[in-house]
Prior knowledge:
Blueprint: E1 3-5, E2 11-13, E3 15-16, H1 18-33, E4 41-43, H2 48-59, E5 83-84, E6 86-89, H3 93-106, E7 110-112, E8 123-126
Parallel strand pairs: 3-5
Antiparallel strand pairs: 1-2, 4-6, 6-8, 7-8
The structure holds zinc ion.
Amino acid sequence: xxxxxxxxxxxxxxxxxxxxxxxxxxxxxxxxxxxxxxxxxxxxxxxxxxxxxxxxxxxxxxxxxxxxxxxxxxxxxxxxxxxxxxxxxxxxxxxxxxxxxxxxxxxxxxxxxxxxxxxxxxxxxxxx
Length: 128
Ligand SMILES: [Zn+2]
């Protein structure tokens, strides 16, 4: 089993779903072709404990790059197959809007957090 490492230094034993791997690779290729900054992983997999801790950070106004209160049923938490169906990128907001709009217009298998009622522009997840 592979490890997912994010910029906070969290290491989680899990794998991204094939579609999330595809999205990451597409982001790398697309940004390379257009001379944009490569995607940077802010947050991939989280354990339930990490998710609870991030909720506490949010409640205590501690930051950590969170744009809203982490959900309890998050797709960042590995499922029973140790598979993860979401990631957050660390890139600037402008980058997120550019790439996020492209993803939501062209790829039906993904949801971009930028289109939620309480937008989370760094968040990308697999539908379903
Ligand atoms: Zn997220």
